[in-house]
Design brief:
This protein has 334 residues and is α/β, with parallel strands linked by helices. The protein is built from 13 helices and eleven strands. It has two domains: 226 residues, TIM Barrel (Alpha-Beta Barrel), CATH 3.20.20; 82 residues, no CATH class. The protein binds flavin mononucleotide.
Length: 334
Amino acid sequence: MMTPLFDTRITRLLGIRHPVLAGGLMWLADAPYVAAVVRAGGMGFITSRSSADLPAFEAELARCHALTGGLPFGVNVSTSRHTQVPLMDYVDAALAAGVRHFETAGRAPADDLIRRIKDAGGVVLHKVPLLRHAVTAQRLGVDAVVIVGMECGGHPGANTDMPAMVAGALAARRLTVPFAIGGGIGTGGQIVAALAVGADAVMIGTRFLAGAEVTAHPRYKERLVAAGEDDSVVCFAANPALGGAWRVLDNATAREVRAREAAGMTEHAQFAELTRGTEQRDRAYAQGDVEAGMLSAGAAMGFIERVEPIGEIMAQLMDEARAAMARLSSLSAG
Ligand SMILES: Cc1cc2nc3c(=O)[nH]c(=O)nc-3n(C[C@H](O)[C@H](O)[C@H](O)COP(=O)(O)O)c2cc1C
């Protein structure tokens, strides 16, 4: 087992070996994925919204418990998107199953949500795309915040032009709670840089997508390996009513969405058959049709060189982090 390189407020808060959080991934952050991250020394979050109903969610939690061998893992809950099950029911089911680490994403978490988790001895990490939302979340009493830059795969919300590194450096001045930064992170050098500006951890999504434990078709993973840093595209940036900015793989579906946007279409119904989640889940992830569906992915695709176990990606990140620290020492003039 790899010796920990870092001791930060977030490694201590979550009891993890490495300051690496793997954020929720719609359809993909299931038990095998989250357990692989946890066994590799990071913290992963089962995406509650991917479960069709409460029994399916409970079964996923039980599967993860079995796969982690009892190591703690987390759950991701959306505070603004439509969920098949009321948000609080997901939270209660997770607490009942012994989960104590929650990644909330979306609107500022309500008071009763934060209280419910904290009263049960849990930890709330709230993910935001904008610094001012991080400050609000801190005021509301969350334990830590995650700030994602415009580079991130998925939904950077209203953030279409603030990179993670700028947001992180500003966060160090404006926050007192522990924080992580995410968006475009795929090397250990970036982890050291994030910690250097004041962050306590990084959040990674895209870099882990071709992990061997990710439940997705080999053709999808091969597409990620072939993709470079320029192969993502942002849709709906000018249309908050359609969910706001969404960074995805530049495939036929994304190009069709952008063409319709350019033609002036603004109604949800004009995009529905392209953006529905079953396109991603069934056609792309299950069947390997990588032109189908809006496939969240960011600039960190540039770092994906092969399909490999998540433990090996983590080991590489930590080797690179060690090398980055040695490089910094060798540059010291003092
Ligand atoms: C395929 C994919 C699906 C995602 N789904 C969700 C989600 O359902 N909920 C959520 O909070 N974040 C989601 N995210 C965002 C990630 O949790 C994380 O914040 C982001 O990927 C970090 O940026 P990076 O992709 O540049 O590493 C998703 C990201 C990807 C790549």
